[in-house]
Amino acid sequence: MSPKTRPARTKRSQYLSQLRVGACIRFKRENKLRLSTRIVAKLEVATQEVQPDPKTPCANWMGGAPGYPGHNGLPGRDGKDGKDGLKGEKGEEGPQGPKGDQGEMGVPGREGPRGFPGYPGQKGEKGEGSFVYRSAFSVGLTERAPHPNVPIRFSKIFYNEQNHYDASTGKFLCSIPGTYYFAYHLTVYLTDVKVSLYKKDKAVIFTYDQFQKNNVDQASGSVLLHLSSGDEVWLQVYGEGDNNGVYADNINDSTFMGFLLYPDLDVH
Question: Helix, strand, or coil here: 135?
Answer without folding.
Answer: coil
